[in-house]
Amino acid sequence: MPAPPGITRKLLFAFGALVALFAAASLFALGRINEIHEGTHALQAASGRVRAALELATAVRDQYAHLAHTIILGNDSHARFHADARARVEALTRKLWEQAQDAEERAWVGDIQESGDALDRLYRDTLLPAVVSKDQAAVTAAHGHALELVATIQARADALARRFDASIGSFEEHVGAVEHASFLWAVVFLGGATLFAAGVGLYIGNSVARPVARLTEGASRLAQGDLNTRIPEGAPDEFGRLAAQFNRMTEALRAHQEQLVQHEKLAGIGRLAAGVAHEINNPLGVILGYVRLLQRKAEGSLAEDLKVLEEEAVRCQQIVEGLLDLSRPGRVAVEPLALREVCTEVVARLQESPKLKGVEVRVEGDAPAWAHPQRVRQVLFNLVVNAAEAASSGGRVEVRIEPQAGGGASVAVSDSGPGVKPEERPRLFEPFFTTKSSGTGLGLAVSQAIAHAHGGRIEADAGPLGGARFTLHLPPPREGA
C-alpha cells in the first residue's frame, strides 16, 4: 500500500494552492488593468479625433471669415491670413485621415480634402481677382460657391465629430463595465484568498501547532519524571510517527528504569547476602549436623520434630544460596549450547525426583544458543519445577525451543495450571515475592538475573495449555564472546 501523504506534503500543497490562488488573482488583476489601460488609451485617441474634427470645423470657419473679410474690405489684405487658415485646415485634414478607422470615415475626410482644395482654388483663382478688379457679379457667384464648399466641409466635420463622440461613449461604457467587473472579481478573489488563507491557518494550527504542543507537553511531563507519559498518535503523518516514536522511547525508558530499579534491588540484596552468607551458613551447617546426628537416636514424636527442624534449616540454606546467586557478577562466560539436549537432561533429572510425580512433561523443538551451561540449567530447572507445581498431579508441561531471528533462541515453558493473575505479573520477578505457600520467592528473581547476565530476559504470559507460560529469550552471541 502506498504511504499516506505526510504533513510536509500537505503543507506544501496548501501553501502552493494559496500561492497559485494569489498568482491567479494577480494575473487576473493585471489583465484587467491592461484592458482598462487599453480602453483608456482608446478613449484618449477618440477624444483626440473629436478635438481634431472640431478644430477642423473651427479652422474652416476661420478660413471662410478671412474670405468674407476680403469681400468686405475689397482688397487682398486678408490673403495672408486666409493662407494660414488654409494650412491649418490641411494639417487637420491629414490628421483626420490618419485617424480614420473605416472606409466611410476615410470617404468623409476625402470629401473634406476635395472641398478644401476647391475652396482654396476658388479663393485664389476666382474670388480674390474679382475682388481686386471690383467684379461684383463674379464676387457674388464665387461667394455662393464658397458657401457650398464650406457647408460641405462643416457637414463632414460634424459627422466625424458625432461618430467620434459616439465611439467615446462606447469606450467609456466598456471601460466602466471592465472596471465594475474587475472590482467584483477582485472582491471575489481577495475574499476567497482570505478565506483560503484562514483555512490554511486553521489547518496548520490543527496539523502542526497542536501536535507540537502535545509533544512539548509530553516532553515536559517526561522531564518531570512521569515515565508513563503517552502522546496520542493521531494521523499517520510525520507528527503521528514522531508521537509513536516518543511513546516507544518513553516505554523503553520506563522499562530501562524498572530494570535499573530491579538491578539496584538485586545488587543491594546481593551485597547483603555476600556480607552475611558465610556467617549464616556456618551455624546452619552446625545445626543440620547436630539435627541429623540426633535423628539417628531419636524415636517417635522427637524424630518428627527433628525432621521439621532439618527441613527448616535446609530451607534457610536454600534462601542463602539464592541470595548468593543474586550477588554474583552480571556477565557470564558463554559457549555453544544445544538447548534441546540441556532441556532433556533437566527433565530427565527431575523425573527421578518426586517434583514431577504425576506430571506429563514434553520437550519440542531445537535451537543452538550461546550461554553458560550451568546457569541455563539452573534457570530451566526453576521454570520446569514451577510449571510442574502449578500443573500438579495429572497436569501437563510443555517445553518448546525455537530459534529467533538474528541468531538468538527462546525456550518457552507452559503449564496446564491455573495461570498467573494479571495483577501479580508485574511482581513475579521481585525477590521474595511468591504465590506459593512453601516458596522462597527467589527462584524467578535469580532466573531473571541470570537471563539478564546473558543479555536476555524472561517474559510471563498466558500459555497454550491454559496456564502460565514463561519464556527465556537468549540473544545472539556478543562480539568477542
Helix-strand category: alpha+beta
Straight-line distance between termini = 42 Å
Strand order, largest beta sheet: 2-4-5-7-6
The CATH topology of the largest domain corresponds to Four Helix Bundle (Hemerythrin (Met), subunit A)
Q: Considering DSSP H and I runs of 4 or more, what fraction of the residues is helical?
A: 55-70%
The overall pLDDT average reads: 80
Shape label? rod-shaped
Number of strands: 7
Helix and strand sequence? HHHHHHEHEEHEEHEE
- Gyration radius from CA atoms, angstroms: 57 Å
Domain Histidine kinase: 275-478
Catalytic activity: ATP + protein L-histidine = ADP + protein N-phospho-L-histidine
EC number: 2.7.13.3
Protein name: histidine kinase
Can you walk me through this structure?
The protein is an alpha+beta fold and 481 residues long. It folds into 3 domains: 7-199, Four Helix Bundle (Hemerythrin (Met), subunit A) (Up-down Bundle); 254-328, Helix Hairpins (Orthogonal Bundle), CATH 1.10.287; 331-474, Heat Shock Protein 90 (2-Layer Sandwich), CATH 3.30.565. The chain is 70% helix and 9% strand. It is built from 9 helices and 7 strands, in the order ααααααβαββαββαββ. It has helices spanning 7-73, 79-99, 103-132, 136-223, 238-297, 301-326, 339-351, 373-391, 443-453; strands at residues 335-338, 360-365, 368-371, 396-403, 409-415, 457-462, 468-474. The chain has a 5-stranded mixed sheet, covered by helices on one side. Strands 1-3 form a two-stranded antiparallel sheet. A hairpin with a 5-residue loop joins strand 6 and strand 7 (468-474). The longest helix is centred in the middle third of the chain and has 88 residues, at 136-223. The chain is rod-shaped. The mean pLDDT is 80.
